[in-house]
Specification:
single chain, 286 residues, alpha/beta, Rossmann fold, 7-stranded parallel beta sheet, 13 helices, 15% strand
Length: 286
């Protein structure tokens, strides 16, 4: 079996490749990359690499030859039309090369009334896949826990979490746990052959007061919860180029749309995802 992973140089993609190597040989894995200079990340592990451009169907047709299972990790962008175009071009390449099996990695903010700017895209893809003759599964990640670790020094300085979500809880998953579930689904036909939809979360969600308490216990610093207004939050992050987009996501959180908790991860892997307290404790260094 040949497993081809798109977005393989990203934070999640590299972990998916490593998790696949726990179950299959390097010759069974192909990493597609956008920057040829990053090929060494995989070549030193004996993994074949191919350079693709999501805007160029021909490049993907060449790269996907011989693929049995495509693991599609989309671009990390905030442009719905571009994201849909990239997916449709990828789907065209999939159909041209005769790939029969696809694992799509999405995000759980996909409800019809979700104000997150990319919710329409994440809602579109499962419906689009359902209209094809592919064997597929969709894995929807909760919010990544990983960015909270480098964010802790700023939170310690501020003395408070500032997310504008009110008292609504948020669900998280670590990238490593996500990668384990993705690789397991990709290598297990029974988990990916019937249009399954999985939502990957930790065993529980956390309101911000609870999350602040966990952070305080782990860092030894006093961290509370002092939410900004949505407009103030957007302005605070506008200079970084994603204030509106992040604001729309936390607006969804405030509406209670990012609080989903499932046991899908355990059903896939046979064990619970790492909960937030042990995750932060394992990764935080003073």
């Amino acid at each position: 079996m040949k497993y081809t992973v798109t977005g393989a140089t990203g934070n999640l993609g590299q972990l998916v490749v490593d998790q696949l190597l726990a179950d299959v040989t390097p010759s069974d894995v192909r990493a597609t990359i956008h920057n040829p200079k990053k090929a060494s990340l995989f070549e030193q592990k004996g993994i074949e690499t191919r350079t693709i451009d999501y805007a160029d169907v021909t490049s993907m047709v060449d790269a996907f030859q011989g693929t049995d299972v495509l693991v599609y990790i989309p671009s990390n962008i905030y442009n719905v039309l571009q994201a849909v175009s990239e997916f449709e071009k990828t789907l065209q390449a999939v159909q041209t090369t005769g790939i029969k099996n696809m694992v799509y990695v999405g995000f759980y903010a996909d409800q019809e009334r979700n104000p997150f700017v990319m919710s329409s895209y994440f809602g579109y893809v499962p419906r689009r896949l359902a209209s094809t003759d592919l064997h597929f599964a969709v894995l929807k990640n909760a919010m990544y826990a990983d960015p909270l670790v480098p964010y802790l020094p700023e939170l310690i300085e501020r003395g408070a979490i500032i997310y504008p979500v009110g008292q609504a809880p948020l669900s998280y998953i670590s990238r490593n746990d996500s990668a384990e579930a993705i690789a397991t689904v990709a290598t297990t036909p029974a988990l990916r052959n019937n249009g399954q939809l999985y939502t990957l979360t930790q065993p529980e969600s956390y309101d911000m007061d609870t999350l602040a308490t966990i952070m305080s216990d782990i860092t030894g610093a006093k961290i509370g919860y002092a939410p900004m207004t949505l407009s103030a939050f957007i302005e605070a992050y506008r200079a970084e180029g994603d204030g509106v987009e992040l604001g729309s996501m936390y607006h969804a959180g405030n509406l209670g749309l990012l609080s989903t908790v499932t046991d899908d991860f355990k059903q896939i892997t046979g064990h619970d995802a790492q909960p937030m307290p042990s995750f932060l404790k394992a990764h935080y260094q003073k």
